[in-house]
Amino acid sequence: MPKHALSVTREDDFAQWYQQVITEADLAEESGVRGCMVIRPWGYGIWERIQRLLDDRIKATGHDNCYFPLFIPLSYFEKEAEHVDGFAKEMAVVTHHRLIMQDGRMVPDPDAKLEEPLVVRPTSETVIGAAFSRWIKSWRELPVMINQWANVVRWEMRTRMFLRTSEFLWQEGHTAHASADDAREHALSSLEIYRSFAEDCVAMPVVAGEKPENERFPGADATWSIEAMMQDGKALQAGTSHFLGTTFAEAQNIRFQNSEGNFEHAWTTSFGMSTRMVGGLIMIHGDDDGLRVPPRVAPWQIVIVPMLRDQHEDERVLSYCHELRAQLAQLTAINEPVRVLLDTKPVKAAAKRWGWVKKGAPIIVEVGARDVAGGNVSVLRRDRLYNEDGKLASEIMERHDFVDRASDMLENIQQSLYEQARSRLDGNIERGITDFAGLEAFFNEGGKYPGWVEVQWCRPTGDVLAGVVERLKALKLTIRNVPMDAPPADGDCIFTGRKAAERILVARAY
Amino acid sequence: MPKHALSVTREDDFAQWYQQVITEADLAEESGVRGCMVIRPWGYGIWERIQRLLDDRIKATGHDNCYFPLFIPLSYFEKEAEHVDGFAKEMAVVTHHRLIMQDGRMVPDPDAKLEEPLVVRPTSETVIGAAFSRWIKSWRELPVMINQWANVVRWEMRTRMFLRTSEFLWQEGHTAHASADDAREHALSSLEIYRSFAEDCVAMPVVAGEKPENERFPGADATWSIEAMMQDGKALQAGTSHFLGTTFAEAQNIRFQNSEGNFEHAWTTSFGMSTRMVGGLIMIHGDDDGLRVPPRVAPWQIVIVPMLRDQHEDERVLSYCHELRAQLAQLTAINEPVRVLLDTKPVKAAAKRWGWVKKGAPIIVEVGARDVAGGNVSVLRRDRLYNEDGKLASEIMERHDFVDRASDMLENIQQSLYEQARSRLDGNIERGITDFAGLEAFFNEGGKYPGWVEVQWCRPTGDVLAGVVERLKALKLTIRNVPMDAPPADGDCIFTGRKAAERILVARAY
Question: Which pTM was predicted?
């Protein structure tokens, strides 16, 4: 058994392990400001990669980026009752615009009280709806499809880094369409962007499906999500897409003249993915040595660590490393130039190696005087860190051979991380449960990390649904979604015994 | 004389003209939220180009991107008196974290009052200083060089789009160093990033220099700026770099152990550039037909407008345009792939052409059935819109010839916009004034858009400086900076008659 780089294993204490990865991989830290984190360079670098790749996809499907105000007047929220009910309990409210000194302390200036308090945006449907109402006059302008990258604030009592913080970063897409069908279709196409992005770029297999009524976005007619399985068997909602009907169009007066000259309300959608994705990446790809970052979203894909000994060979080692870096930087892998770093910080080579292992750089290349003499490099793949004997699987390769193979190796690592996660997801969804007792038993007796179940239900609404939600809540379970690619129902509802309407995923979740 | 696309000319009313460009080029609009604007797709696209190019330069010089909290506890500000004096009068203060319904209206919940109010960051020295204090232990970790892209809020009573808004977007770099010399040198290197970025990418010639004492950033030991000349002769501060001494290190306890094992305060710097740059770009490159965007920061560099007539040739025109687009997208100009759009929106071709003229796309290519038949394209360069006879300078070129020349054309437009601005700057700095009466006369009698003056002064401090600032203020003038490349002083101070110490730029400014 290898001795691992972290002091807590996933098996021992998943929550502690998660926290340790975040610290040891320099992803984020507590900021001293309640509920807000500092995203450190490696964590932010991963987020920037996510932004770049997702942004390309959002733009390629015809959305334009814009920027809307951080502050939303209270009156905007009052217009849409259901929406405000969903958010009012957790918003930061700006009430003053100046501070003064009073008894040696700074306090909000009573003379600078705002006439109308401003809410720090928890999401931007209302303020973007107001813009849509100004912009949209005729069917000719539809669809309007925009997106913004922004910070949002939802006051949270219990926070966890990346997963639930008072301030977080996200992308929010907003669109308006001439018909319900167009809008609904668009919401599904946004979901598909998320599915393919999560799987292709983050190597995160997901289940795409519709949320049950009780989990809809406040004000939405329908909400879809992608759900990923973490290594502790819990689900993480990694992105959501909403068909908003005419809810916001009615509240914000978004109307257009149709081709017959009559006025209609527009049909709107919204969709969002956030820094939560980084938390998901950690819990899906991390191991007991730290993070493993899929090459497509790794800020550095290859890190070269020169093994210097304060001796005169150091110069030859360094120049060999510089040449290697230049060669690798010429390569293309997975349709982008390879991102390669030569780490020359004044830190010992072994500490650097383990630092990059914990950060999860896909390939770590060590170069010492002996490698230089033999024209070699020592290559460590982060997805195959140890040999079966528990020793580090560092492979000595001829330098030109490594350069020739580096692109393929990166593609292969991307693929292998995806496949590991895929088989974990596929292997941990129990589909054979046909009654509530079975469900109960599965989660009570299914071990520490039981996974998910897919069961059939009658798609109840109202009080019946509320009862189902309560029964699940007692087991700390929630309905994740109705998988789009599940076969049609053919049995009975495990909650009511009635004829089932569809299949749902039930799981513990973040 | 051509009839121009805007109804107000720069000569008529510069402020009105500026506003009209913003509206007609779809750059931004009022949001309905006091002091905040909506940045629309074309405006945001320019900002994204600025971000991308500036970010590359900031990263290439060793800065890592991070993200710090939006909210800053009041106590952080109280630690640094001078800093808070500079900002306290204009900050948004969050006092509550929940809303409730009261008498049918939403109000901040008195039970959810924060124990310590939170300030929406006007800048992040204090919260980043707190992080530096956690991160920095030893000289080995220095320098620490980070950057963040963020929104900040400074409550403004009078706002003007892009130039002065309560919320704006910016980049703020923050560094810590082991010595005063290192920090000062770094602050100057950041200024050089700004100078070269403004000139090379935004085609905006600037004067780099140190700000006088009264214009320093609150808490800084020295502040440098780049200043650009707008077409109305006013100055725009387009970026600033600050040497902060140990002010923030002392307030936030940023200390390190030096190589002898003793503890010292670190020396810090910060530097920022904001969405103000977009305002500067408008006022430096816009003309009476709208905006002209330098190719390096244009979201689309070439826009193809198919001239469709709802006839059967339309299909041939469109397929010709698609081929042309594909050919152009293969090209590289100014070290990047050419950004080319085929505009297929259901709008008349003439309206599209003028829309893109007003937006300032560098090259507009029109393609009609006759062009297709002849293998031609009609090319309009935005920097040379009219012939001398006042007619549109649309040039018919063979398609392959245009494709061959498009890259050069874009480089040439970039260069020509820079040169126009350069000769305006060089031609409008008066250097012959040797007394205050001359200065007064220059601005009172120098016409509508007088430009700048470079004069000599004794670099006064304290009350004498305050007196100088007052005298200038009466003329609506400010000292912009001490140009770094100006010759040494060789005369007398125009304010005091004493021997001069250096040369300063005096101007009206935004």
Answer: 0.96
